[in-house]
Design goal:
Blueprint (H helix, E strand, L loop, with lengths): L5 H4 L7 H17 L7 E4 L5 H6 L6 E5 L2 H13 L5 E5 L14 E4 L9 H11 L5
Parallel strand pairs: 1-2, 1-4, 2-3
């Protein structure tokens, strides 16, 4: 089975209702588990930013990271279109590249860690940019 080209899929990624629904379900689970008070947030493997956008009313500034240039471009466009001027989208490969500087109050992700070669090292990397209580 050939690997998916996420950059190539980025323009139509949000057209799949199962992806939009999944992000909404994950957002509901996060809302039910955490009291979100507009934390500075890092979305890891953000894709088009569906998860952060589903939580947008309870998040502060968001840094969206992904290893697919096309996804980063679409995530930035979607954030701008939604009026999220304090959101940034950056090309970062988790486990390989340095993460954006913290501290972050929240790190969120869906369907990304299975793409990482060394998950314990990646989780340690995420932990390093979380602030106290994050």
């Amino acid at each position: 089975m050939a690997a998916m080209d996420f950059s190539e899929s980025s323009a139509t990624w949000d057209d799949d209702p199962t992806r939009v629904d999944r992000a909404a379900r994950v957002a509901r689970a996060i809302r039910s588990a955490l009291a979100l008070d507009h934390p500075r947030t890092l979305e890891i493997g953000c894709g088009t930013g569906l998860l952060a956008r589903a939580l947008a009313d309870q998040l502060g500034p968001v840094t969206l990271i992904d290893s697919a240039p096309g996804m980063v471009e679409v995530a930035a466009e979607q954030a701008r279109a939604a009026g999220h001027e304090d959101w940034t989208a950056t090309l970062v490969s988790l486990g390989t590249d340095e993460l954006p500087a913290g501290p972050f109050g929240l790190a969120i992700s869906q369907l990304a860690l299975h793409h990482v070669h060394d998950v314990p090292a990646a989780l340690s990397q995420i932990y390093q940019v979380l602030g106290t209580g994050g």
